[in-house]
Amino acid sequence: xxxxxxxxxxxxxxxxxxxxxxxxxxxxxxxxxxxxxxxxxxxxxxxxxxxxxxxxxxxxxxxxxxxxxxxxxxxxxxxxxxxxxxxxxxxxxxxxxxxxxxxxxxxxxxxxxxxxxxxxxxxxxxxxxxxxxxxxxxxxxxxxxxxxxxxxxxxxxxxxxxxxxxxxxxx
Length: 171
Description:
The protein has helices spanning 6-18, 22-34, 42-53, 58-70, 78-90, 94-106, 114-125, 129-141, 144-155. By secondary structure, it is an all-alpha fold. The model has no long low-confidence stretch (mean pLDDT 92).
């Protein structure tokens, strides 16, 4: 076989990314994010992901939202991340439901919501193993009352998505 050459791969990704191919833009961004074949550069990674997102490439949307939520390569933007995740969740992406669950669990807007997180993980878990793992962990850790609230969310999924931070009380 041919020996792997991460730097050469990045050159090809770069050419394709400059030509507007979102798959290459996403892959190049991941290389910048991890420093594989190029110098690690979170700003460049976020920039290439933004290009792929502008072409509605869903894997890049997930990666970009994760960078927004973490503040990697630029300012933290929990609202922007949540909007992207909600868009993808509406399209049936279990990774997005899992990501929203993680934001709820960690305290999106400052207040953790373990019941909502558990419900989101349950909805994603059938199709996304990391969410199924979180279901097991939270089910053991949460009170019966919190688990019951999660079940109510699962039965009424329209109530699941949290409002963006700071949106409470705005109309």
